[in-house]
Amino acid sequence: YGIGDVELRDYNGYGGMGGLGVAMPSINTLNDINPASYGYFTRNRLMMELSMGGKSVQYITANQNIPAGDFTMQKAAMGINLFKNWGTSFGIKRYSNIDYLTIGDRYLLGTESKLTSKIEGHGGLYNFYFSNGFKIGRHLNVGLTIGYLSGSSNRTEEVLNSSTTDVKIKKNVFYRSAKMQRIVMKINRAA
């Protein structure tokens, strides 16, 4: 349960396996992995990115075959050149996703009574971030990203009783945390 399925993949053209990425600059796209590349943004250009993602799963048991899936917005970002050799970007990324439903039997402690329990969870965490990149001289770029994780985990357990009375337990947890995410320094070598 916890914070859910954590999204380690960065939905841009620069991501690689294991969270690694390409550090090359681009004047056409936002490279979130390397904020130092924002120093290369061209003047008078506003860049926006919207990334969608999804997954599909199949739960198979001896008695059932249940398909499930999730298709959501993964990232919305905007970048702009503030001054010569200084670019900035801000946006929101999905950090984790919570979406589950379990149904099972429970026994009331101290008795032989069997009760049906239905547990449902939804929510997730989002990363709000702000990045700056500077080009200092010909061979040095510096970048910084600051982020704020925020979101909720909502869990509802319903214990179904054979009588007309059901018990419903709701647990909502709100998460928040501010952190510095990346400081990147890139040194360009002269050819």
How are the SSEs placed, and which strands pair?
Blueprint: E1 5-6, E2 46-60, E3 65-83, E4 86-107, E5 114-136, E6 140-160, E7 167-187
Antiparallel strand pairs: 1-4, 2-3, 3-4, 4-5, 5-6, 6-7
> What general form does the structure show?
elongated
Rounded Rg = 23 Å
Strand content: over 45%
Helix/strand-derived class?
mainly beta
- What's the mean pLDDT score? 80
Count of β-strands: 7
Could you explain the architecture of this structure?
Helix content is 0%, strand content 64%. It is an all-beta fold and 191 residues long. Strands 1, 2, 3, 4, 5, 6 and 7 form a seven-stranded antiparallel β-sheet that branches. The N and C termini lie far apart (52 Å). The relative contact order is 0.19.
Short description:
This protein has strands spanning 5-6, 46-60, 65-83, 86-107, 114-136, 140-160, 167-187.
Jot down its keywords:
single chain, 191 residues, mainly beta, seven-stranded antiparallel sheet, 7 strands, 64% strand
